[in-house]
Amino acid sequence: MVSCQRYDQGYYTAYRHLADEDLDVVFHLGDYLYEYAVNNVAGTRAYPAGTLPDLFNRETVTLEDYRLRYALYKSDPDLLAAHAAHPFVVTWDDHETENNYSGDIPENSVPPEEFLLRRAAAYRAYWENMPLRRPQLPDGPDLKLHRRLHWGRLAQFDVLDTRQYRSDQAYGDGWQYPGPESEDPSRTLTGDAQERWLINGWHRSDAVWNVVPQQVTFSQRYDTTTPPSKVSMDSWDGYPASRERVLAGAQAAGVDNLMILTGDVHVHYGFDVKRDFSDPGSRTVGTEIVTSSITSGGNGSAKPANWNTLTAANPHMRFYNGLRGYATVSLGRELARTDFKTVSHVTTQGAPLTTAASFVTEAGEPGLKPA
């Protein structure tokens, strides 16, 4: 699992290590590129002045802009090595188009028709540069990205798109207190059609593991131990009715081994997924593995400043680490093993790889246990 690889915030050292792993598939969970301008020294990479032409020093808006940005990212030898070594299954988040957009609603106040032209350009460039099939060729600003993959009877992978069909974020797109707007039962993160597709697929599944690669944090995250607490309105916390429908659908389908794979937040998290997050004693119904970024956010730290608060406020959080890296998951018929892997720095090259923590999840016993 990989995500969030802002080019100008560091070197792709983690990809060099990933290229040497013995893997069957890499799931890229969003933010393959960033739309922000890249200056002529490539930010913290600090190339010799003038190395990059000025055509990269602007935000991506047109089809040419997005195509050039993919060309820049794919010029990196460590990213190329990872692609050469492993097949990738990809899904996008926001930055492949624009930060924190929701459906056809842009981050900033531009006319909807103008934003949809930008979205069409971004989606076309994504399809051209990612390992997608011909039937997924976009139709203007629309591209059906969600899809279902099978690994025999061991695993069913339901790859989601939580960006294209979502309702607009409530109370803005940052950390806010929940309220009537965010708790409106009609709000959706997946769109109605994709939600039905997901749940119907679970009813037909005979896989040991039902795995959901997707973009934004599914599990509840409170930012204080003293209620009320703010939550991220851009994540599933900002769409609690949508999350409840998905969890109810998994329960109705009899899904025993639910595993959610997530990117976006530039940290490693390990969560026990609760049937009712408001009740710490609620039944654990799945696991969520959140991978850190490849470079986004710079070097990071093993113990971020809010580590004590978040781990105390969220007892279902089993692991939290803020260094860059990736996570590997090994699926077997009896158990799944997760290894959270980190590099000590990305602003200079050559960082070694460390396994920061390892957990197992036993089939039929959801939740994370130290390996």
Description:
There is one protein chain. The chain is an alpha/beta fold and 371 residues long. The chain has a single domain, classed as 4-Layer Sandwich (Purple Acid Phosphatase, chain A, domain 2). The protein is 21% helix and 23% strand. The chain contains 7 helices and 15 strands. Strands 3, 4, 6, 8, 9, 10, 11, 12, 13, 14 and 15 form an 11-stranded mixed sheet that branches. β3 (147-151) and β4 (155-159) form a beta hairpin. The protein is globular. The protein starts with 12 loop residues before the first helix and ends with a strand. The mean pLDDT is 97.
Mean pLDDT: 97
CATH superfamily: Alkaline phosphatase D (PhoD)
Tally of strands: 15
Please name the CATH topology.
Answer: Purple Acid Phosphatase, chain A, domain 2
Briefly note the structural class of the backbone: alpha/beta
Overall domain count: 1
Give the H and E element order.
HEHHEHEEEHEEHEEEEHEEEE
> Which of globular, elongated, flat, extended, rod-shaped describes the shape?
globular
Based on the structure, what is the oligomeric state of the protein chains? single chain
Give the terminus-to-terminus CA distance. 19 Å
SS field, number of helical segments: 7
In the CATH classification, which architecture applies? Answer: 4-Layer Sandwich
Low-confidence runs (pLDDT<50, min 5 residues)? Answer: none
Helix proportion = 10-25%
Radius of gyration: 20 Å
Portion in beta strands: 15-25%
CATH class: Alpha Beta
- Main β-sheet: number of strands, strand sense, barrel status? 11 strands, mixed
Organism: Streptomyces haneummycinicus
InterPro entries: Metallo-depent_PP-like, PhoD-like_MPP, PhoD-like_sf, Phospholipid_Metab_Enz
Protein name: PhoD-like phosphatase metallophosphatase domain-containing protein
Domain PhoD-like phosphatase metallophosphatase: 2-340
